[in-house]
Specification:
By secondary structure, the protein is mainly alpha-helical. Among the domains are: 152 residues, Rossmann fold, CATH 3.40.50; 56 residues, no CATH class. The protein has 21 helices and 4 strands. The strands form 2 sheets. A two-stranded parallel ribbon has the order 1-2. Strands 3-4 form a two-stranded parallel sheet. About 3% of the residues have low confidence.
Amino acid sequence: IVCIIKNISPNSKIKTFSAVFPGKNIDETKYINEVIKRTNVISFLTTPTPTMLFQDLNDVIKTQEEPFLGTSIYAQYSVMKLAHKNNMKVLLDGQGGDEIFAGYPSYINPYFLELFMNFKWRFLVSQFKWYFRTYRNMSPIFFILSRPGRFFLKNKSKPFWIKKSFFQSYSSSKKFKNSLSQRLIQDLTYSTIPSYLRYEDKNAMRWSIETRLPFLDHEFVEKTIFLPAEYKIRNGITKYIFRKAIKDILPEKIRLRTDKIGFATPMDAWLKSELFIELTDNLIDSDAFKERIYWDWKKVKKEFEKYKNNEKNISLDVWKWII
């Protein structure tokens, strides 16, 4: 978005706000610097820490008004806070671009499945060869051969710490058809985007900021969502047509990326900090926690001990217990 604005209006004075995590494998500072070199924007950075999260936790919960998915919501909260401190009132955000143009690697499976179900087997073979050169991964083939359609029709698996009776009472049975477009529509209207937008709107409003989402302009979505699947994923490359469209606008180091980090945070490291280990221990041992009807307290206690001893990575589950 920044590069497109600068391409349309070279004299625009643009400020950008980002969360970075120097030294972590999820850090995207080098890509931010590529944009800065190309556009000469004024860049503001924040590096959230476990101490900051601990101090802000009650306010983030109050802001969201509900339990929320993970610590990436706090990173976004921190970005909005930074923008507020710099007197910003309106921000542009890129939500929706990956869901429209199939930017996540997880969209590869439904794409290959669509080719398979439509008997485009020769093209499927050629596309898999390109995919394998990029990712060195055989999982789409195993996925297709195991049970075509499973990706869309399976029920979500039950977390180990939820009681079976409670899960069966509330689990969703919503199902979607076998095509990439249907998967994208699912994410746009049901699975991901609605919750992402709710998190974003509440974080923004907390800091008196309005956000605008160019990729979710309804006319843009209507024109792009049903483009042929081969326009969106081709030769092992996601967001294929979009990458073509922004050639010479976006730095090549970014345009040709094949990894996808998303709005990630070092959640595991944060939850293993002394502050959060103590918080979680006290929480799990509390009577209020033990009396909850929807989880198996003994399993929770046992698994958290394994987590503390680095025997198991269940950081997302631990976060759910806390929140």
